Amino acid sequence: MRIAYLDFIYDEQEMLEDIVKEMRRCAGEGTQIDYVCMEKVSSLDYIAYETLVLPELIKAVGEIEGRGYDAVIIGCCLDPCVTALREVYKDIVIVGPFEAATSIAKSLGRTFSVIATRPKAKEQYMETIHRTGCGSALASIRYLNLRVSELQENEERLHSRMSDEIGQAIKKDFADVILLACTMETGQYRSLQEKFNVPIIDTTVAALKYAEMMVSAKDMCGWTVSKSGTYETPPREDLDKFMNKEMKLRW
Known about the structure:
Layout: E1 2-7, H1 13-26, E2 32-37, H2 47-66, E3 71-74, H3 82-88, E4 93-95, H4 97-108, E5 112-116, H5 122-131, E6 138-143, H6 155-171, E7 177-180, H7 189-196, E8 200-202, H8 203-221, H9 236-244
Parallel strand pairs: 1-2, 1-3, 3-4, 5-6, 5-7, 7-8
């Protein structure tokens, strides 16, 4: 199967290559992973950024589907525009890393804690947690108080902050599982897992394994996104108007 990892960090090529390298190491036999960058923004720290990137993101996924990929992973733990993309497309599997990670975390323990970057993103995380039915399993959301752009500036500082919050989540919040809620934290989970002896979920790896499962379910069982209700596809002509027409206000 062919999976595309679609990211926004075009100015951090080395980091992106490290993320995909870790995913390839964990990929099943016969899984091909390629990465592509959208030269739009270097992070989606703000809801406004997600909204502004949506038209280009819809077009990008269409191009990826046209190149014959079975699945696309949206490379941001806020799962930007995932529900909108599932509305537009049916044949290509759309995976959000945080949604995938919460679904896996809930299967590995009764409770999980999220290690997030900043409180700014709390409501976006909570929206996904409730949408996936994982609200009752959430023990806590803890914060590194670092921006996405700061995570890779000092690896020792990052590891120390993550260790502190994970320790508190296990001791004080009674979390069975820990979820690292930023794709830029990829690669940290192995040493942390050995240190704390609990499952530490890396969201990019979780997204990969979830994508592999969903593609396999589609191919073997015919399971695809339902178009009977919530994800009904908009009329093509209407969608084209939104995508291509410049907005003008009438006064």
